[in-house]
Amino acid sequence: MVSSSGMLVFAGAALIMALTPGPNMVYLISRSLCQGKRAGVTSWLGVVLGFTVHMCSATIGLTALFMAVPLAYELLKFAGALYLLWLAWQALRPGARSPFEPCPMPDESPRKLFVMGLLTSILNPKVAIFYLSVLPQFISPETGSVLVQSLTFGTTQVLIGSTVNLLVTLSAARIALWFSQNPMWLSVQRYFMGFVLGALAVRLLLEPRRGV
């Protein structure tokens, strides 16, 4: 069984990761600004399917991992922490760009928009690392089925990630306009998310090893 406190902390971590600018957010903002909300929503549907692919793959993989090699995921946790630190550096390094500064994109057909959204999501390392490094920290094999816990946490992430990305997609024009009128906040946003990512990475590294 998943405890309410564990779910609350996990949901907070999932929300932080969803709000952290990454390939999905950059693509959806740029697509919505360049081709309109309809194109953005079509791309978003592909991103959501990509989340589901990640969730199903991680659920099956984590179940097998915990049952076969209980300590193997420590390596994934370490790799995930390093990736989060890299993301933090990308946000904090001199000359870094904010994802709210969109890139120009040509118009595409609905089918291609969906496929591009799907591929952007599936190939997004931020989502993969979250499932392989962050999610396992909330699973306790001694309290119940790893499969059920993985599905519960994974579904929560899909719902949170999908909702945040949909809101960003529908509000892309307003977000970009606001930041263009308040350029200082582009830097504030970068530094804030950089420190949040760094703190999450440190938490992962300091998380005590758990036995099964």
Describe this structure in words.
With about 210 residues, this protein is an all-alpha fold. The chain has nine helices and no strands. The chain has helices at about 5-20, 25-35, 35-70, 75-90, 110-120, 125-135, 145-170, 170-180, 185-205. α3 packs parallel to α6 (about 125-135) and α4 (about 75-90) crosses α6. The longest helix is centred in the N-terminal third of the chain and has 32 residues, at about 35-70. The two termini are about 15 Å apart. About 40% of the residues are buried. The model has no long low-confidence stretch (mean pLDDT about 80).
Q: Helix and strand layout, with pairings?
A:
Blueprint: H1 4-19, H2 23-35, H3 37-68, H4 73-92, H5 110-122, H6 125-134, H7 146-170, H8 172-181, H9 184-206
Helix pairs in contact: 1-7, 1-9, 2-3, 2-7, 3-5, 3-6, 3-7, 4-6, 4-9
